[in-house]
Please model this.
Amino acid sequence: MQRIVFLDRDTIAPQVNVRRPSFPHDWAEYPRTAPQDVVARAQDAEIVIINKVNLRADTLEKLPKLKLVAVAATGTDCVDVAVAKARGVAVANIRGYATATVPEHTFALILSLARSIVPYRADVLAGEWQKAAQFCFFSNPILGLSGKKLGVVGGGSLGGRVAAIGRAFGMSIAVYDPKPPAGATDLVSFDELIETSDVITLHCPLTEETRGFIGMDQFRRMKKKPILVNTARGGLVVEADLETALDEGLIAAAGIDVTLPEPPAADSVLMRLATRKNVIVTPHVAWASTEAQQALADQLIDNVENFVAGKPTNLVG
Model:
């Protein structure tokens, strides 16, 4: 009988059904697991399910029965994949489940910032409409998207969907991707994208090459003073430089769904920026529509069942 341990079940919403695998098994789950508790909870497991719990080399070495790490996410940077492979441990991830929800959240941020939705709501609740004594008032800027240029960093499925939505709003599109997928269009250099875009949105992984690749040098070359949106990974944008860019008016606004670390410290730059009228910070929920979470949960258990059946799916590394 396979022993399965889910180390951070609370990373999937409680209303989402994580079905039990169809083969005989022993299932244990924990809402969350602190680093010092990982080995004790997982040491007898053949299959470990995680979302953000780290499984580094020193931990993997202490899990001799482990055969599969099923990651309940697309990103597998929480696992030392090379070490796992060397030890004969398979790693599977989730793919294709967020192609609607992340672009929707991206444009929710773009529209909210372009039209100053959050500050206008605050002004209405504060009684500013009554003080205006007319049918409307103009306390915050409103930017139309039609005719503006949308710069998309990352031309994969998410970036491609964001670009399609942008076209529906009448925006011109610029895409930067160092390894563009087949059939990609509207490709430009990174320099051209940051220098000519009215809105810049990030849809690329966090790697050694992309870590901190949006900093002061890039902000100072953003000639259109764009709206910047990051629903990809914390660490892509240098947070201290983002604050300086906002202070100096180098960008118009920022929508941030991802930070490093997560959650950010209460006294962090991002939490300080979150109080500004032209900044929206959301808690890494771009992926998290109920529909997308259910698709993720179903694919997660599919991966587990397929591995046990000898037909593994979505293996990485």
In short: The chain has twelve helices and eleven strands. The chain has two domains: 2-97+291-308, 101-281. The first helix runs from residue 38 to 42.
